[in-house]
């Protein structure tokens, strides 16, 4: 017997929601606008549901699903699952006769949810964690703007004719973004120190762990509360080495799984550079891999994994970083 009497599969796009309600035998279908203000009127007034025995399920579509999923949980008290699109794709398999329509997609999402949905239950981010996450995103956007403006300025400086007023405007914009970054980082540190003082101090005890790394662990990874092993965190981020094999004997160079969060990998990559300078354990690992002929990028990925294991061990144990203790702890986590 399935846990839910009905499953509501939702195919989410920017403007519309294609909805299939499935009870294990038959479907009912709705097409409504992706507008939380109208969702209750357009859907719930037409489809009467017992929310205690109904599962709402949708694919992770980046930003488009988040508002709806959060609204359903926080405002209406619904049970919601959010699934990696790859899981749905694997569930569907290869069906040459399958029509690719929003209606068909929502039916398949509902069917998936009827069997596996409760494995992917969605828990909305709290307001504070979301503010930390968005502040991190904003800082990264500002750095990208500085990089773009700096390249344009460099191009201007190579021209035969120089226009001081244009050059001055570019320099002024760069300074503006640099000032905004300082302000945002100051606010980020204030938020974290005020609300996550213990966690922040524990993480800062790791050599090479700066504000960005602490913000990533606290704001995006929620201090590992939803993870039992460090390896699960690495897999979630997408920095687990993925071995390559063809047939029974041909092996290629392994690569990382890129099914995780690109932005988190980017932050970790930068943090790994710092850890190679300041963290003895990470530095030893990096140069050992380089000496054995591994590419620099692969060595930095290994350092990122070690950083995650160090942070995981510290927050789970509640003890500050100790080089000797965490060397043993991370070795155990690696073999877990």
Structure characterization notes:
One of its GO terms (biological process) is DNA transposition. It comes from Deferribacter autotrophicus. InterPro entries: Transp_IS110-like_N (IPR002525), Transpos_IS110 (IPR047650), Transposase_20 (IPR003346). With 336 residues, the protein is α/β, with parallel strands linked by helices. It folds into three domains: 115 residues, ATPase, nucleotide binding domain (Nucleotidyltransferase, domain 5, 2-Layer Sandwich), CATH 3.30.420.40; 69 residues; 124 residues, no CATH class. Helix content is 58%, strand content 13%. It has 13 helices and seven strands. The strands form two sheets. Strands 3-2-1-4-5 form a five-stranded mixed β-sheet. A two-stranded antiparallel ribbon has the order 6-7. The longest helix is centred in the middle third of the chain and has 32 residues. It is globular and about 65 Å long. The two termini are 34 Å apart.
Order of helices and strands: EEEHEHEHHHHHHHEEHHHH
Main sheet specs? 5 strands, mixed
Terminal CA distance: 34 Å
Number of helices: 13
Beta-strand share of residues: 5-15%
What's the count of strands? 7
Count of separate structural domains: 3
- Mean pLDDT comes to 86
Poorly predicted residue ranges:
243-259, 332-336
Give the fraction of residues assigned to helices: 55-70%
Coiled coil: 139-201
GO molecular function, one term: transposase activity
Protein name: IS110 family transposase
Domain Transposase IS116/IS110/IS902 C-terminal: 201-286
List the helices and strands and how they pair.
Blueprint lengths: L5 E7 L3 E7 L4 E7 L2 H9 L9 E6 L4 H11 L4 E5 L1 H8 L9 H15 L10 H31 L6 H32 L1 H8 L6 H10 L9 H8 L3 E6 L3 E7 L5 H17 L1 H12 L4 H22 L5 H13 L1
Parallel strand pairs: 1-4, 4-5
Antiparallel strand pairs: 1-2, 2-3, 6-7
Helix pairs in contact: 5-6, 5-8, 6-7, 7-8, 8-10, 9-12, 10-11, 10-12, 11-12, 12-13
């Amino acid at each position: 017997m399935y846990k839910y009497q009905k499953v509501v599969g939702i195919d989410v796009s920017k403007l519309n929601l294609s909805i299939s309600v499935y009870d294990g035998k038959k479907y009912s279908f709705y097409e409504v606008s992706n507008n939380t203000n109208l969702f209750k009127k357009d859907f719930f007034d037409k489809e009467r549901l017992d929310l205690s025995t109904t599962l709402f399920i949708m694919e992770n579509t980046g930003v488009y699903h988040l508002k709806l999923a959060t609204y359903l949980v926080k405002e209406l008290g619904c049970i919601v699952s959010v699934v990696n699109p790859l899981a749905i794709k694997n569930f569907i398999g290869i069906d040459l006769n399958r029509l690719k329509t929003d209606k068909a997609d929502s039916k398949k999402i509902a069917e998936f949810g009827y069997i596996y949905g409760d494995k992917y239950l969605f828990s909305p981010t709290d307001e504070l964690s979301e503010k930390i996450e968005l502040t991190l995103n904003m800082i990264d956007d500002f750095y990208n703007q500085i990089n773009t403006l700096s390249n344009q300025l460099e191009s201007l400086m190579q021209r035969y004719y120089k226009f001081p007023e244009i050059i001055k405007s570019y320099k002024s914009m760069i300074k503006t973004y640099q000032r905004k970054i300082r302000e945002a980082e100051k606010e980020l540190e204030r938020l974290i120190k005020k609300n996550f003082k213990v966690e922040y101090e524990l993480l800062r005890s790791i050599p090479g762990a700066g504000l960005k790394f602490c913000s990533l662990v606290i704001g995006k990874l929620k201090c590992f509360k939803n993870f039992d092993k460090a390896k699960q965190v690495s897999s979630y981020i997408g920095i687990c080495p993925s071995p390559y094999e063809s047939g029974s004997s041909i092996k290629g160079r392994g690569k990382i799984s890129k099914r995780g969060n690109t932005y988190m990998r980017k932050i970790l990559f930068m943090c790994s550079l710092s850890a190679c300078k300041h963290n003895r354990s990470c530095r030893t690992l990096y140069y050992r891999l380089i000496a054995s002929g591994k590419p620099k990028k692969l060595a930095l990925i290994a350092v990122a994994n070690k950083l995650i294991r160090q942070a995981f061990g510290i927050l789970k144990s509640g003890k500050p970083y100790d080089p000797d203790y965490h060397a043993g702890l991370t070795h155990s986590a690696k073999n877990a």
